[in-house]
């Protein structure tokens, strides 16, 4: 029998657990247990409580959490409405829970969220040298737009170990 997982919206009370989850998924030694680590590309933290609270403040933004029946946080995704587009970011799955379908479940929840707001597409940015992550999103219907964005220079997102840029990817929902 498959484990029951639940999707719910984050509240400010969830921020400490979210900080731990996101940082463990992307940075430090624990992140190396999973395939989504960025520790070889960036030093420092991926996020902090202040940054997550800032993300949760706008009315058009939310974070969805994936939890077990016991309430253990195992994944999350940040969503922000931008006109008819839903921006998806910071998709995080606990390193010891990766490759169990949690990321796919969060993508499906993000897509349902987009549909509920009448969005015609989802948009993400991915570090351009993350070939395996780009391929994962492509397998889930995303395509590269040809656009790039500079990697944030604010060290609260981490300290690059090499020059980085972000690829913009989209998934069309209409049709």
Summarize the helices and strands and which ones pair or pack.
Blueprint: E1 5-9, H1 15-26, H2 28-31, E2 42-43, H3 49-56, E3 61-68, E4 73-82, E5 85-93, H4 102-116, E6 121-127, H5 131-139, E7 143-150, E8 159-160, E9 165-172
Parallel strand pairs: 5-6
Antiparallel strand pairs: 1-3, 2-8, 3-4, 4-5, 6-9, 7-9
Characterization of this structure:
This protein is an alpha+beta fold and 175 residues long. The termini are far apart. The chain has a domain at 5-124: Aminopeptidase (3-Layer(aba) Sandwich). The longest helix is centred in the middle third of the chain and has 15 residues, at 102-116. It has five helices and nine strands; from the N terminus they run E-H-H-E-H-E-E-E-H-E-H-E-E-E.
Number of strands: 9
Strand order of the largest sheet: 1-3-4-5-6-9-7
Helix % is 25-40%
**Largest sheet entry:** 7 strands, mixed
CATH topology of the domain at 5-124: Aminopeptidase
Estimate the global geometry from the Cα principal axes. Answer: globular
Radius of gyration: 15 Å
State the CATH architecture of the domain at 5-124: 3-Layer(aba) Sandwich
SS strand fraction: 25-35%
Runs with pLDDT <50, length 5+? none
Which structural class is indicated by helix and strand composition? alpha+beta
User: How confident overall, as mean pLDDT?
Assistant: 86
State the end-to-end distance: 35 Å
What is the highest CATH level, the class of the domain at 5-124? Alpha Beta
Number of helices: 5
**Helix and strand element order:** EHHEHEEEHEHEEE
CATH homologous superfamily title of the domain at 5-124: Gcn5-related N-acetyltransferase (GNAT)
